[in-house]
Amino acid sequence: MMHTRAELEAELAALEQMVVQLLAEQEAPADFWDTFAEEADHFASRVAPADWDWADERLADMLRRHGAPVRGASRATLQKHLDQLDALMPDMVRGSPTYELFAEAYLPREIYILDQAGEANGEWARERLREMLLKHGAMEFD
Predict the structure, then answer these.
(1) d(CA 66, CA 128)
(2) What confidence tens digit (pLDDT) does each residue in 29-39 have?
(3) 66-107 pLDDT per residue, tens
């Protein structure tokens, strides 16, 4: 269920309190990012597509204000890139008579998405890309 901006603002305030506490308690950055990513994903699941950019900016601003480095694009932003690629896939698969031609069309887009994902969401993005390749009957690249 999508929430209103007022409801999302309240959730962001609670998330911000958690960020302050996590940054104070966590010794290892990976521990912070694991916990934060889970909570941020939960938050993002309730954001309407029209509010994705707004939510991304609010989360990034929150992290900057409290000294947590922003490491890669959010899952909401990455999902937009994945959705765009997914829409192109049928034509890329059908329109590429050889593996090389398909790779030439597909790989730059995959590299861009993985580069944008960074450490924080790299594995998540890789899994979505694998699922997309299987969905469209394309080969997975090594």
Answers:
(1) 30
(2) 667 777 888 88
(3) 887 556 777 888 999 999 999 999 998 888 888 888 888 899
DSSP string, 91-140: HHHHT-SSHHHHHHHHHHHHHHHHHHHHHHHHHHHHHHHHHHHHHTTPPP
Say if residues 72 and 120 touch (Cβ distance below 8 Å). Answer: yes
Token pair, residue 65, equals: 């204000």
Rounded CA gap, 21 and 55, in Å?
Answer: 21
Contacts of 112 (CB under 8 A, 6+ apart): 81
The Cα–Cα gap between 38 and 88 comes to 30
Long-range contacts of 8-14 (CB under 8 A, 24+ apart): 8/43, 8/46, 8/47, 8/51, 8/55, 11/43, 11/46, 12/43, 12/58, 12/59, 12/62
pLDDT at 125: 94
Give pLDDT, residue 139. 67
Give pTM, 2 decimals.
Answer: 0.53
